[in-house]
Each structure stands twice: as C-alpha cells, then as structure tokens.
C-alpha cells in the first residue's frame, strides 16, 4: 500500500539498522513532521550518535490499527542534547504486518519449563517479545508456569500462561504469553527477533 498515514495515526516508530560492527540496533522515536518527501522523528539519547548516512533502514510504524513495516533510507541525523533528530525518506510502500506490535520469528533454542517443582527441557519453535512457542513430546505442562530461555550469552526467566496447544510433528506445540518478564529481558528478545528478521530479509535477496 502507498504511504497515506498522518501524524495523528501514528503512536511511535522504530528505526532499525546495523552498525559498523554488523550489530542490529533499534531506536524508538516520535514523529514530528511528515511531508511529501520526508519523515522527521525525534528520540532521546544519552550520547551523541554518529551514523554514516545515507543508510538503508527498516522502519516499523506502530499505529492505533496495527503495525506497518517499510524499507527506507536514513537521510541524516542531528544531535541536539538530549535529543537526536532522524530524517527519513518517505517510504514509497508500506506493508501491513499485524494488529499488534510484536511479531514471532522461528527460532530453535534450549528452554526449561518448571513443572511440579522440577524442570522439563523443551525446544523453542518461535519467539517474540510477547511470548514463545515450544515443542513438547506430550509432557504435561500447566497453564501457568515459569519458563527459562537459554541463549549463548544470557538466560531469561519469566512467568508465562498457556494460550493454546496444537498437534506438532510427533508431539505438541504449546504457545505461551509472557505475563511477568523484566523489561530489559523483553528488549533483549526484541533485539534477537529483529536481528533474525534482518538476516532472513538479507538472505532472501541473495
């Protein structure tokens, strides 16, 4: 769809890009102006940012009716302590993603579910900042449990509730929603999902 959003439609945006080391970074910003060529956004920052521009970025637009995505170009940034202003090319096309901010990505990671005072080891199927789905060989898992996600450099413990169970291969797929998770852990998961999405997008272009 063509870009027809107005400032009043937009709650905030997320600007996702890779730095010089290849790390995926995301900045949450408020839209200050939209004209027929440019989006001007503003975000607080504890330090001055130096980014080589122009730079291709992934733009996420969180609106009242859902989440939109677009690829566009960061034209320039300017630092005015404690703010950073981002000038983006107006995207030619938008893709409607879903009616919530969080998107799930396929990911295979080690995971533990606390069951009856002990832990059952399972594998993740997909993950988002809002929840996780796991593969279980028909182990009995309660509706509300503690789950531990294990990554290479981090372990995250969160309380979850079961939202559905489906037949999956020779076992079952159990989908959970986070009900109690530290905000920095949620941000870490969001970064993992973003990095995987950017990698998949790059691979699809090869």
3D structure, described in words:
With 206 residues, the chain is mainly beta. The chain contains one helix and 14 strands. The strands form two sheets. The protein has a six-stranded antiparallel barrel. Strand 12 (144-150) and strand 13 form a beta hairpin. It is elongated. The two termini are 25 Å apart. The mean pLDDT is 86.
Number of strand elements = 14
Please tell me the overall pLDDT: 86
Shape: elongated
Strand order of the largest sheet: 1-2-3-6-5-4
Largest sheet: 6 strands, antiparallel, barrel
Number of continuous helical runs: 1
Q: Regions with pLDDT < 50 over 5+ consecutive residues?
A: none
- What's the helical proportion of residues? 10-25%
Classification by helices and strands: mainly beta
Relevant terms:
14 strands; mainly beta; 6-stranded antiparallel beta barrel; 1 helix; 206 residues
Give the SSE layout:
Elements: E1 10-18, E2 24-34, E3 38-44, E4 55-63, E5 66-80, E6 83-89, E7 95-98, E8 105-106, E9 110-115, E10 118-127, E11 131-136, E12 144-150, E13 155-168, E14 171-180, H1 183-205
Antiparallel strand pairs: 1-2, 1-4, 2-3, 3-6, 4-5, 5-6, 5-7, 8-10, 9-10, 9-12, 10-11, 11-14, 12-13, 13-14
């Amino acid at each position: 769809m063509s870009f027809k959003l107005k400032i009043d439609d937009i709650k905030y945006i997320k600007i996702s890009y890779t730095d010089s080391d290849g790390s995926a970074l995301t900045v949450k910003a408020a839209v200050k102006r939209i004209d027929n060529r440019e989006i001007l956004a503003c975000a607080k920052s504890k330090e001055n940012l130096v980014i080589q521009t122009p730079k291709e970025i992934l733009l996420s637009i969180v609106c009242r009716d859902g989440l939109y995505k677009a690829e566009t170009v960061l034209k320039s940034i300017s630092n005015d302590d404690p703010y950073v202003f981002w000038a983006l090319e107006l995207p030619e096309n938008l893709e409607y993603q879903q009616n919530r901010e969080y998107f799930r990505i396929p990911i295979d990671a080690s995971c533990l579910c606390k069951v009856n005072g002990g832990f059952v080891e399972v594998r993740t199927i997909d993950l988002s900042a809002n929840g996780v789905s796991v593969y279980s060989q028909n182990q009995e898992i309660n509706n509300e449990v503690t789950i531990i996600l294990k990554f290479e450099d981090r372990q995250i413990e969160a309380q979850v509730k079961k939202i559905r169970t489906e037949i999956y291969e020779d076992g079952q797929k159990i989908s959970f929603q986070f009900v109690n998770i530290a905000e920095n852990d949620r941000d870490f998961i969001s970064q993992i999902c973003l990095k995987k999405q950017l990698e998949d997008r790059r691979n699809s272009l090869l």
